[in-house]
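Extended Data, record Methyltransferase type 11 domain-containing protein
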Amino acid sequence: MGDAYARSFASLCEGTVELLLDRTRGTDHLDVGCGAGTLARAAAERGRRVLAVDPDTDMTGLTRAATEGLDVRVAEASLPALGLPDAAYDAVTANFVVNHVPDPRAAVRELARVARPGAPVAVTSWTNGPTLQARLFRDSFAAAGAVAVPGQRLPAHLDYERSVDGVAGLLTEAGLTVTASGEHRWDWRVSWEDLWAGISGGVGGVGETYLAQTDEVRADLERELRARCAEHETGGVVTMPSVAAWAVAAR
């Protein structure tokens, strides 16, 4: 699945990398949920000493390849127990991580624990706001008669509001003081072939749902989504306006 992610949704998540780096500082940088390694590489190129962690072996492998020759250490570790010392890092980033973990509040408390006093903890999250990407996926799945996969949402007592206030609230509940927050908007540009590689490779909720369908429904879904994406394609590239919530805090 790592290669499928690297070809597809990794480029979507890159849309907030510069924002997070511009909002953080310091020498010792902890990148939690490093994915394909784009943020870790960019942080090292800014002169930071980076520890990049991810629970997925495929992702740590991608990050090692992306950061070869740079001051980046890569390790497998997962929230909410990273196994790292208290107050050890000048900056902590978690790019699209809190929206994937089973307990977002416990995860953010761990991010706060490993940050030094005054060190920025910067996180991003997808929102529930309507986006072109969400509409394309929703309409295509409906037209293909796809059956929803249960259990993709967190239980109500663990979930948080998928908004700027919701993300900032997670940081506040962890004992941090929010210093900045907002929505970040950008255009995700991806070829149809790379987008489909991610979906058919089982990446994310859309990929999991695709793999759960019958062969007939999968074929219908590919046809339906291809036709809809073609309406937003220029020169072989599909452009989808995207939005994320972000917040930075410190203690």
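Summary. The chain has a mean pLDDT of 97.
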